[in-house]
Write a structure and sequence with these properties.
Blueprint lengths: L1 H21 L4 H4 L15 H10 L1 H4 L14 H15 L10 H16 L6 H6 L7 H19 L10
Helix pairs in contact: 6-8
C-alpha cells in the first residue's frame, strides 16, 4: 500500500511539473499590460482608486497579476474563466472607451456589489486576503460610485460642468 501511495505521489508531482512547464500563457495572460491605467478619466480620489486597484483590478482590468498556480491545470481554467467573465462585466483598463450611460450602469453595479459584500468574492479573498474590503472601505467605494454617477448624469461629456 505504501508503494502504491508513493507511486501515486510521484505521478502526481510529475503531472503538476509537466503542466507548469508545458502550459503556455493564455491569450488573457498575454493581454496583461501594467502600463494601462485603470479608470482613466474617472474622478476617483487617490484613496478610492487605491482600494479599487487592490481589490478589483486583478480580475477587472488588463493589469492582472497571474499567480504561479494559474498555470496549473485545472486552476488555470478556473482563473482564466473568472478573469474573462470579470472583464466582460467591466474592464477598468477600458473605462475611457465606455459611453456615459455604460459608465453609469457599471458604477451602479459596482456600488451594489461592493455595498452588498458580493465583490470581491470570498473564494478570491481566501487566496488574496489583502483584497478584502472593510465595511468602511466598501462604503467609500459606494459613495464614490454615487458621486461619479451624479457627475455623469449632470454633464453631457462625462466631465464636471465647467464654471
Amino acid at each position: 500500500m505504501k508503494k502504491l501511495i508513493a507511486c501515486f505521489a510521484v505521478i502526481l508531482a510529475m503531472w503538476m511539473l509537466t503542466s507548469i512547464l508545458i502550459r503556455p500563457a493564455s491569450a488573457l495572460q498575454q493581454q496583461a499590460d501594467a502600463s494601462v491605467p485603470v479608470l482613466s478619466d474617472a474622478h476617483a480620489e487617490p484613496d478610492v482608486l487605491s482600494l479599487i486597484e487592490r481589490s478589483c483590478q486583478n480580475c477587472h482590468s488588463l493589469k492582472t497579476d497571474w499567480p504561479l498556480y494559474g498555470r496549473i491545470f485545472p486552476f488555470s481554467l478556473l482563473i482564466q474563466h473568472d478573469v474573462q467573465q470579470a472583464r466582460s462585466h467591466m474592464n477598468l483598463s477600458q473605462w475611457d472607451r465606455y459611453d456615459d450611460s455604460e459608465k453609469s450602469r457599471i458604477l451602479a453595479e459596482i456600488g451594489s456589489v461592493v455595498r452588498n459584500r458580493i465583490m470581491p468574492p470570498r473564494r478570491y479573498t481566501l487566496l488574496h486576503p489583502d483584497a478584502r474590503l472593510s465595511p468602511d472601505e466598501a462604503n467609500r467605494i459606494y459613495r464614490w460610485t454615487q458621486t461619479e454617477r451624479k457627475m455623469l448624469n449632470h454633464s453631457g461629456a462625462g466631465h464636471p460642468a465647467s464654471e
